[in-house]
Design goal:
alpha/beta, Spore Coat Polysaccharide Biosynthesis Protein SpsA, Chain A, 2 domains, 11% strand
């Protein structure tokens, strides 16, 4: 029978060979002082330094499992693979650069196991980042709170804790790691809490993220919002736009015809309909409306076919007494 694991710690690694030994020691010291049965899953995301060699060495000393990608796939891919491998009751994510403190993990574990949270997100209230990162980050978090309805101060914080069933029932892709709380909420895991955590100054190396991550972050937010809102009912989106477009074109056409008939009846000067820009606008609106409606119809058929294997989450079952 496999050993019961209290905490699985998933650490994406990309060119962090200098910090891994210190991180492993720190995690071990905290976990053993609290008597936790734990595992660390380090996912080497295509590092070009000696990160993988360091992970292999540490795995002989600590309860560390290493996974190595053939190339750099990104943080979301590393987390997704780590989630699939994790066997702990609580799954914690943290960065490998020592800016996240393992000292915060026991309290986050207690919030999950004893206070009933599905997710506990870290909040780095006091940051050691330059103003070029903190100001855009605050704006990004404000917009994300507004759109998602989740009252978190720091969606970008890498230090988060999840109940095991949460990470086993969601998929993280692209650059969606920022929006795991949002993805989880739409899957029914809406008990989301927050804990103020220590943010430490970077000790080794340089940051792997630039200002472009905020631009990409907004695009990802639009993408994940659209996919999760309409993937089960695409006709609601495309059909609504198509109907509005078609009706607009239809009403403009009726108005142009009525205007011409009125002018003919009362002997007024009559312009050919094809000489009026509104005619072409109406024609485009009619064509676009039909195309959007057909797009929604085809999307609905594809969704129906995909739903033959449904992905509805069943949290509990009654015992079979038959």
């Amino acid at each position: 029978m496999p050993k019961k694991i209290d905490i699985s710690i998933v650490v994406p690694v990309y060119n962090e060979d200098e910090s891994l030994n210190e991180l492993a020691q720190w995690i071990s010291r905290v976990m053993e002082s609290r008597g936790f049965a734990y595992e660390v899953i380090m996912v080497d995301d295509g590092s070009t330094d000696d990160s993988w060699e360091e992970i292999c060495k540490l795995s002989e000393i600590y309860p560390i499992r290493g996974l190595k990608f053939t190339r750099n796939y990104g943080k979301s891919a590393a987390l997704d693979v780590g989630f699939k491998e994790a066997i702990g009751d609580v799954v914690v994510t943290m960065d490998a650069d020592l800016q996240d403190s393992p000292e915060e993990v026991p309290a986050m574990y207690d919030m999950i196991m004893h206070e009933g949270y599905h997710i506990v997100s870290g909040w780095k209230k006091k940051r050691f980042d330059p103003i070029s990162k903190t100001i855009p980050s605050k704006f990004f978090n404000y917009i994300t709170r507004l759109i998602s309805g989740i009252k978190l101060h720091d969606f970008n914080c890498g230090l988060k804790a999840y109940k095991s069933k949460v990470v086993k029932n969601i998929s993280v892709y692209g650059e969606m790691h920022r929006y795991i709380p949002l993805i989880a909420k739409w899957s029914g895991f809406n008990k989301i809490g927050e804990k103020e955590v220590e943010h430490r100054a970077r000790k080794y190396g340089v940051t792997k993220f630039g200002l472009e991550r905020f631009v990409n972050g907004f695009l990802d937010l639009i993408s994940v919002s659209f996919v999760h809102r309409y993937r089960k009912k695409p006709m609601h989106f495309f059909g609504s736009l198509g109907t509005i477009s078609f009706l607009s074109g239809f009403l403009i056409t009726i108005w142009l015809i009525a205007q011409k008939m009125y002018s003919i009846q009362y002997g007024l000067k009559v312009r050919d309909i094809v000489d009026q820009p509104l005619f072409f606008l109406a024609l485009v609106a009619l064509i676009v409306g039909v195309q959007l409606f057909l797009t929604g119809f085809l999307s609905e058929m594809m969704t129906l076919n995909a739903n033959r294997k449904n992905d509805y989450l069943i949290e509990e079952r009654t015992e079979d007494h038959s």
